[in-house]
Design brief:
By secondary structure, the protein is an all-alpha fold. Helix 2 crosses helix 3. It has a domain of 66 residues: Orthogonal Bundle (434 Repressor (Amino-terminal Domain)), CATH 1.10.260.40. Helix content is 63%, strand content 0%. The protein is built from six helices and no strands. The two termini are 22 Å apart.
Length: 113
Amino acid sequence: MITLPGVSSEMIANNIVPFEPTHPGEMLREELECRGITQTKLAAEIGIKVSLLNELINGKRDFTMEYAMLIEAALGIEADFWINLQTAYNKGKIRKDPSFMQRLANIRRAAIL
C-alpha cells in the first residue's frame, strides 16, 4: 500500500480496490466478442468442451495455468495475463470476507507483540 503524508490512503489511485473483483472470464468474453470468435470455435481450437469454456467465461471455474496456456496459444494473449487476473480476482474475493479479514487483523496484532 502506498502512503503519502497528509493524504488519505483511500485517495491514492494505486490503493483503490474495485467494488467487485473482475473474473478473467469476463475479459475473455469481451476478447472473443471483439474478435468475432464463438465459444464453440475457441473450445474446438484449444481442445476442450464448450461447457468447460463456458464455465471459465462465466466465472464458475478458475483459470489454471493449463487453460491460460491454451488460450495464449489460440489468442496470443500471454498466459501470465490470465493467471494474474485470476490471482487478483481470488485476492479481491477473499478481501470481501469480513471474518477472514478479521482473522488477518488478529494475526497482525499478535505478530507486533
